[in-house]
Amino acid sequence: MSSKLSINPGQEKLAQKRFIFFLVGTKSCPLRFNERLVWSYLVKAERAKKSGLTRKEIAEWTGLSSTTTRHVVTDLVDLGLATNPHYRLTVANEPNEQTSDWWHRRTTKKDQPHWADRLAYFPIELSSPDNDPIKAAILGLLRSLAGKSHAAQGQSAAGLAKMLGSDYRTVGMRLRRLEEAKRIKTMGMSQNRFGKTDRFDVVLLSADNRDNLAPPSNDKPPAVSPNSDTDRFAAIRRDRKCMADLMANHHYPANVISDILHQCDRLPTDRTLDIFLANFDSAQQDHRQQQSAGKFVGINHSGHLLLHKIAGVVNRRRSEAESLAAEIAYFDKLSFSA
Predict the structure, then answer these.
(1) Average pLDDT over residues 292-308
(2) Could you count the other beta carbons within 10 Å of the beta carbon of residue 134?
(3) Is 22 helix (H, G, I), strand (E, B) or coil?
(4) For residue 207, what pLDDT is reported?
(5) What is the largest CA-CA distance in the chain?
(6) d(CA 20, CA 37)
(7) Which candidate, 42, 228, 300, 326, has a CA 20 to 30 Å from the CA of 18?
(8) What is the pLDDT confidence band of residue 47, given thresholds at 50, 70 and 90?
C-alpha cells in the first residue's frame, strides 16, 4: 500500500498569487463562506466573459476540496445563482427576486449595463502560506475596512464573521493566527480575546500596510533588496504613516501627533512601530479605565498619556546608553592605567 498522501488540487495553486473579488453580502444573505467564495469566483468569470468554469478549475482557484466544491456548486444551482448548461461547466446567474436582496451594490456603478459589474466586492489574495481561504478573506476585508488609514477600528469577531458568512469562533481563531504571524496587531480587547461582542482595533502590519490592493501587473519593477536603503526608508515612511493615521483616527490633536512622532524618531527604527503600538494600546486602556471609574477625562487625555509613555521609553533608553558609556569609559581608564 502506498503511503503517499492525497493532496487537495488547490494546494499547489494557492502557493501562487491569485485574486478573487469577494462579493459583499447583506445581513439577509444566508450563504456560508464557501458558497460566497465559489459564487464570487463564478461572477468574476462572468465579468471576464468566460463561457463557464469546471469544478476542477473552481477547486484549484479557491483551494476547496473537490467534494466540497461539488456540494457548493449543487447548492448554488438549487438557489438559482448558477446553472450547468453543458453539465461540466458552471455559469453564474444574475440574482433573481429571491436572491437579489442578498448582495450589496456599488454606489458608483449603478448604471453599469452588466449586472456583475454592479455588485460590491473587496479583493482577496488567495496565496496565504498555509492555504487558508478564510484567513485570506479576513485580511482582504480588513484592508477594505481600513482604507488608506492602515487601521480598522471598532471591529468584532461576530461582525467580521457576518460579513464573510462564517462563525465568530472561526474568525477569532484566524485573527489569533494572523497576530501570531505578525500580519496584524489588535488593540483594545478584553481578557476574553475575540469574544462574540468584544470590540477592538486592527492595525495591518508589514506588507499589509498598502494603500491599495490590486492584481499585480505584468510590468513589475525589479525587486529591491531587503537590505537596501531604499527598502529601509520606505519601511520607515510606511510605519510613520501608520502611526499618524491611527492617532488621527482617534482624534488626537495635530500638535500632540507631531510631538509623539518626534519622540518616535528617537527610537530604534526596527522596533519603532512595535514600541508605539504597545504603548498606544496601554494608553487607550488607561483612558478607558479612568472613564469607567467615573473620572473626568478630556478628549486629549489618551494622546497626552501616549506622549508621556513614549517619552518615558526614550528617556530610559538614553539613561541606559549613558550608563553603559560611563562604564565603558571607566574600564577603559582602568586598562590604560594598568
Answers:
(1) 73
(2) 21
(3) strand
(4) 53
(5) 94
(6) 8
(7) 228
(8) confident
pLDDT in tens, 81-120: 999 876 789 999 999 989 999 999 988 877 888 898 899 9
Residues 322, 261 within the same domain:
yes
CA gap 29, 23 in Å, rounded: 11
H or E stretch at 210: none
Boundary (domain end) residue, out of 84, 101, 127: 127
The model's pTM: 0.66
What CATH number does residue 62 fall under? 1.10.10.10
Is residue 177 within 8 Å of 170, Cβ to Cβ?
no
What is the pLDDT averaged over residues 199-220? 55
pLDDT (average), residues 150-172? 88
Counting the structural domains of the chain, the total is 3
- Beta strands 19-23; 184-187: pairing state: unpaired
Closest-CA residue to 187 (of 169, 170, 171, 205)? 205
Write 294-297 long-range contacts (CB < 8 A, 24+): none
Q: What CA–CA distance (Å, rounded) separates 151 from 164? A: 19
Sign of CA dihedral 140, 144, 146, 152: negative
C-beta separation of 105 from 114 below 8 A: no
Query: Last residue of some domain: 127, 152, 184?
Result: 127
CA–CA distance, 242 with 89 (Å, rounded to integer):
45
Based on the domain organization, do 205 and 233 belong to the same domain? no
The C-alpha atoms of residue 331 and residue 50 are separated, in whole angstroms, by 76
